[in-house]
Every structure is written in structure tokens, then in C-alpha cells.
Write a structure and sequence with these properties.
heterodimer; A: Arc Repressor Mutant, subunit A; 3 domains; 9-stranded mixed beta sheet; 3-stranded antiparallel beta sheet; elongated; B: alpha/beta; Amidase signature (AS) enzymes; 11-stranded mixed beta sheet; 15 helices; globular; binds zinc ion
Chain lengths: 476, 475
Amino acid sequence: MVYENPDGVMIGLEIHVQLNKLNTKMFCGCSTQYHNAGPNTHVCPVCLGLPGSLPVINKRAVEYAIRIGLALNCDIVEQTQFHRKNYYYPDLPKGFQTTQYDFPIASGGKVVIEGEDGEHVVRITRAHMEEDPGRLMHIGSIEKSKGTLIDYNRSGMGLIEIVSEPDMRSPKEARRFLDKLRNIMEYLDVFDSDLEGAMKVDANVSIMGGDRTEVKNISSHKGAERALLYEIMRQKNLLRRGGNVVMETRHFDEARGVTISMRTKEEEHDYRYFPEPDLVPMRVADWAPSIYEALPELPDAKRERFVSQYDMADMHAKALTSDIRVADFYELVAAVIDPRTAAAWVADVLKGELNYRDLNITSFTVDDIVEIIKLVVEGKITEKSGVQVIRTIMDEGGSPQDIVRQNGLLRVEDDIVTQAVSEVISENKDALSDYIAGKGKSLNYLVGQVMKKTNGRADARQAREMMLEAIDRINK
Amino acid sequence: MAEWMNISTLKETISGSSAAEITASYLETIGKSGINGYTYVFDGALERAKSIDKDGHGGMLAGVPIAIKDSISTKGMPTTCGSKILEGYVAPYDAHVIERLKVAGAVILGKTNMDEFAMGTSTESSAYGTTLNPWDPKRVPGGSSGGSAAVVAAGETPLSLGSDTGGSVRCPAAFCGVVGFKPSYGAVSRYGLVSYANSLEQIGPIATSVEDIAVLMDVIGGYDSRDSTSIDKEIRYQDALVDDVAGLNIGVPTEYFGEGIDAGVEKSVWDAIHMYEDMGATWTQVSMPHTKYALAAYYVIAMSEASSNLARFDGTRYGPRVDGENWHVMASRTRASCFGKEVQRRILLGTYALSAGYHDKYYLKALKVRTLVKQDFDRALSQVDVLMAPTMPTPAFKIGEKIDDPLSLYLSDVNTVPINLAGVPSISVPCGQVDGLPVGLQIIGKHFDDSTLIRSAFAFETNTDHHTMRPAEVV
Ligand SMILES: [Zn+2]
């Protein structure tokens, strides 16, 4: 099956990834751990742009950028070259952003995603390094704001901007691309997606018969899909009504789910790019081979390995490798539990319950899941009880042992049930003859008596089966 | 009035009396001065001198006073760059060179006047009034480090630091009859120097002797990881203080003696070159054909970089603010009212030169010319050891004479800017007088061969007495 793409949708993405796993900012020694700190506490003359301060390239940031470039199958530039992008804005303390222009650190790569019709290649145009600006905070609501405060803690944080070719043919593909990209970044250990402001997306969208528009201010993967669905619908309606889609920049209003025109092409800034004279080019041509050697196993490779090493279904391998933390979690479980059983529990049960609660794998422990799976495998609790224990831990906390005990989930031994069944049969001759005479309801009563005798610890279905077997024997 | 004293005399005097006494005598001279060389006098200078006396500081400059150009960040002191837009701004950190000076035991007397953001050749564009030339108060001291040179010439400090983007140390040194040195690009960290044109400028010392220049360079020079353009290669300046130019090959670039050169200046410089000949050196004429394009290229590059460097002054974080109905209006009003005319002119021209549609025509072309100018130097300096030329084509001009004619003012930089385009070192030493006004001899060397330059200048100083000529008021 080939995807027809009836509207000729073309989507290209620009993704800003904050290198928040670095210890220090892009051009100064300030700590990147500002997320829980007071405003303007993680600043210095350099990231405040004080007169006379000078930037110095964070070598680790360059290494991270190369790591990302290589993971996206890009070519790496011979030497770094930074440019100044000049524009005035209060969150930009130098009046220009230090970024890369015609010599990005990485270019010409590709990422394979699961597209509308199977494997689909999204080409990567380039990935370049730049710095984050500060953050504006309005006093009161944005309409009635009495003033604006600026927090420069974020100023100078290292960013990688990844630019794709317009190779995505639907919002769904765009979302899959973003998920894949985030997944790769986390595998590379350069990025923590949970931190505020970690990833931001701008999208270029066009459909057949119109010019492309740029949609800015997309802050989540879900938001990207929504923004794109809206924008494509808007463009389609516009063309259907005989209008023109003009080249413009639009702003995504997350709350209302619509895109709003910001400026047309004629109003575009002239950024007056020129080479940053304070940063001399740094030769990195020799870095790439050793960084490549040291690249960790990436999602696609891990998925293949899981299938072959653990003999699991590809569906499970895909689910387990779509988040490095889940993959690592799984491998710890698989070290002590049969890998196929572990895969089913982690991929199907645990991930499902976590997703349902919007939690991630870090809110569950390997020890707990191992203990629960063992209880099930050894027949001490039923599968259903296992799920119940997982849910209880997520919702109320507690250890598997305590939850099993407090809820009486321990499965009773078969002989106790057998004895209960024969006792119930001899004590309830009337109900037994009623059932044999065709009164189906009597069976429920008999099973209920078994459950009562075992204080509810028997498995109801098992009790029912054993009762039927016993009646069969009597009938014969 | 304090006498001109060099570092070794000062150190002797200090060990005889005290650093506090020396500092007090300079402060007294500054107090009586009418040349407006300082924009700020440090009220803690005496305390600092006393503590150096008490600690028995053994640094290379222990107790030696120094004045700092107001574009060099000095913790706890105003750093205004001669501009209203930095009025009230007190630097919260020390420039690299200030850290080095403090470690060496120097006593900072204060900050010196300059053309606003170092944009000028006369110190007339300062928002804090013009500095007067100690040789003739009706004349400019040169610029942009006019305050730094004038206070040394007037005996208001034995040493000072300036910065040289297109001649800003050498020009005022020549006009004020003192020694001014622009090191090789990358020899001194720019960390803390408020940028005018980053790819061109260096911090440089001003003093009354080449010997003092060398001492000061040994203190402030050297690699600093906070300036990516700083070069990790040691130069030992004091080791170059050798009175020996036998066999030295001097190149005399024809183009530096072109149209508009004062006959008296030309004669003084040739006399100096002949003096070198007498000392055992040889000279030969060399041609640097792209010199005539250097000035235009220099101004395009400097203004382009400046337009970006000065974008940060928007009234948001420091300095005065003129309110407006929104941020952009506030920033633009602040800039319109707090930047002087010359600064606004250069920001506008630089913005223009970098704009889409003009970028290639101006900025890129200027970069190409810069490469050609560099090649001129490479070629010439592969044949000779140093180049010699007038620092300035004329002696100090009158206050007001050129300030309303920017083009003629820019033209006076014709012999200094090519050096900054090439990044090579250059020193201006006094080599005579014209009508009672000092003339500077400019010696230019190979990149990072500052030693040959210092040796050449030292030999000249040792065998002549031009550097001992002092303005009349200074006895
Ligand atoms: Zn910082």
C-alpha cells in the first residue's frame, strides 16, 4: 500500500533541543541547573552580556552536537564557525544571538520513521548550535500586565536546532518524527525531555496549490499534531474558497488550538548575519571518528537486538525501545525473569498502566515488578491480582508483599479448594439435585459456598471448574 | 607637580619612602590638573597604596600607579566608555588586564577620558568633555585613548592602559609625545575591554619609555582562556630590551609618506631612520600597494562590528533609560538620546553595511581587502625585519578643527589602521618635534614578533633623547 497524500501536504520541522544535560552553558561557566532556582541566580557577565565580556565555546556542547549529528546520519563540518544573528529583544542581552549560519556543525542526514505506508525517510537538512535567550515574565495577565520581568537564567543555554526537509506528509508523520527525534536525543544522553523548555518546534507547512507558512510556538508533540491539523485544514479551506495561501509566519495559540498570522514575508527581519569575531574557528574534523566509536546503541539497533536476543515480538521490542528508560528498565527485569514473560509484563501491562496515569517508568521500581511477576509465575497470585498489585502501587503506594497480604490475594492451594468442594457437595444435597435437574443458578450458589469456606482466597473461576468436575464425577 | 618617573625610579623611590607617598603626590597633581584627562579618580587609591606598603608587596609593579582607559572594566569603578549611555554603570568584574595589574601590585588611580566608545581620533567625541593636549591646551591629545596619553604626558600618572582599534593608543601617544604600544592581536586578553571592533582591537600600554612598556606588557600580556582570540604563545618583553640593531633590516613603505603628510613630520621620521642607519641598521623602500584601500575597509569592518557590539546598550539592564510606551520605543529613545552623534553615525553605517543587499558589496568586500592588506604586510615583512613610518601624518591638530568634518578626521588614521587590519604589532615612539609639537615614529613588526619591535624601539630610545622631551608645564 502506498500513501497517496491527496492534498500534497509537505511538512518540514525545525526543532530546538536544549542541551540540558550539559553541566555548563554554551559560552560561559554558569551552571545549567537553574530549573528550581530563583530568577537571575545562574548568571555571569558573559550570559548577561555585560560590556566587555567574551564568549568561550563549551567543548562538551560541541561534542554533544557532533554526537547528535552522527546519530542523525549527518556529515560533520571540519571546523566550527559561529555567526551573530542581530535583532533587538529584551530577552537577548547582547542584542544578537550567537548561532551558526552557513557552516552548521552537521548537515545532510536522515531519520527513518514509521510513516503512513511503512518505513519513511525524513531527510535532515542541518543541525546547528546556538544559545537560548532569557525568559520574559509578565506581571499579571498578558493583557493587563503592569510590566515585564526578565530572568536570564536560561540565557546562554546550549541549543541544537535541527532542521528537516519538508518530507512529512501528515501531522501524524510529523508527530512520529518528533517522537523518534526525542527518543534518539535521550539515547544519546544529551537531553532530558522532562525539563521545562527542553524542546520547541517550528513547522513549515504547505499543501498542493499554495505557498508555505511557518507555524511557531509549538511546545509539545501533541501540540505539533494539533497545530498542523488546524493549519492544513485552514489552508485547504482557504484554497477551496478561491483564496491564496501566502508565505507568512503564524503563531500557534495552544489554548484555542488555532494559528494566527504574525507577519508576512515582506516584514521578515534582516538579521545581518556576520561571523562572530570573538570566537575563532575550532577544528573538530578529528573529533568525529572517536565520537562515532563511542556512540551508544540507538533505538533501531536496540529494537533489532531485543527481538533476536530476547526472542520477543517486534511489537514488544518497539514498545520497549521507544524510551531509553523503559529499555534499560526492561533489561534489568529480563536479567532475572524469563525475557519473554518480562517483555509482556513491561510492554503490555506496566507501560499501559503508566500511560493511563501519565506517569513514566521512573515512578516504578525494577524490584517491585520482578517480585510481582515472580508471584504470578510461581502461581502464588493470579495474573489479575498481579495487575491489581501494580495499580495499587501506582495509586496508593506500598510493597507487593503488603498489598497481596492486605487484600488476601494469595492464591490458596488446590487441595484446600478440593476439600471445600467435596464438603459443599455433601452439605448441600438439595442444591446439587436442583442443578442436576437443570437449575443452572444453583451452581452459583454452590461455588459461592466454596468461596465462603475458603474465605474468598480461592480463584472463583478455578472453584467453578473444580465444582463442575466434581459434579461430573458424581453423575458418572 | 610630579616629575616624569619611570618604573625603576618609582620603585626605588617607594623603597626609600612609601607607595602611599607616591600615590598621594600623583593624586595631588591630578587634583590641580586642567586637562580633563580623568573621568574618574579612584578614592580608594591611597588606601590601596598603604596596604601595599603594609604587606610589603613584592609584585613587578608594587605600589606603581597606573591610569586605565574608561573602556576597560574595573570592578567597583565606573566604566562609561566616554558615553552617556553608560553613565552610572559600575563594572561588577575586573578585566583580565586589571586582575593582572592587581596581582602585580599596581595602584589604579582612576579611569581616563576617551572618544565615545573609542570612536574618534581626538577625544572630542567624549560625553565628558574634550581632554586637552598638555603640549598645547588648544590642541587635541589624539584619540581615542586621549585621556590615557595626556595624563602620562602631564605627569598625572607614570603609566596608563589604552586600547587600540585603529590607532587609538599610537595616535594619542604620538600627539602627546609619549610611547604607545599596540601588541600583536592575541597577545593581550580582551576580556573586560568593552568592544568597539573585536577583530581589530588590542589593549595597549602607554608610558614615558620603551622600558616601562616592556615591564607593563610582561604584566598584562599572555594567554587567557576567557578570550578565545588570545594566543597561547609566550613573549618575554623585558628580555627584548637590548640596545642592538646592528644588521636590522628596516622597510620604509612609500605609501605611508603619501599625500597630506606634514613636511616636518616627514623630516623627523627620516631623521630617525637615518639614525638607525648610524646605529648599524639598513633600510630599503618597500611597497604596500593596498594601503590606499585599507582606510575604507577598516571603517566598514569597524562600523559593522560596532553596530552589533553596541546593540546591547538598550536601557534595559544598566545605564540610563528614556521611557516609552513599549520596550522597542524605550530602547530606541534611550539610544537616540544617550549615544553621541559619531556613535550613531557609525552604528547606522555599520548596520547599512551588513544589511541584506549591501552585505556583499560592503562588508564582504572589506573582508577581501583586509586579506589583501594582510598579504601586503606578509610580503613586506618577509623581506625586512620591521617597517617604519610616521604614526600620524601631522602633529596634533586644533580642538574643533576636524570634529565637524568626519571624513578628514577619518583620513588622519591612514597610517595606523592597516596595522590593525593585519593584526601585527606596532609602537609609536617620540622622534622629534614640529613647532613645539611632538612627532611619533611608528615601528611595525611581524605578528607575534613583538620582541624585535621592542628591541628596535629600545635601541632608538637608548641612543636618542626625544623621549625625554616634556611639555612646558611639566618640569
Ligand atoms: Zn554565565
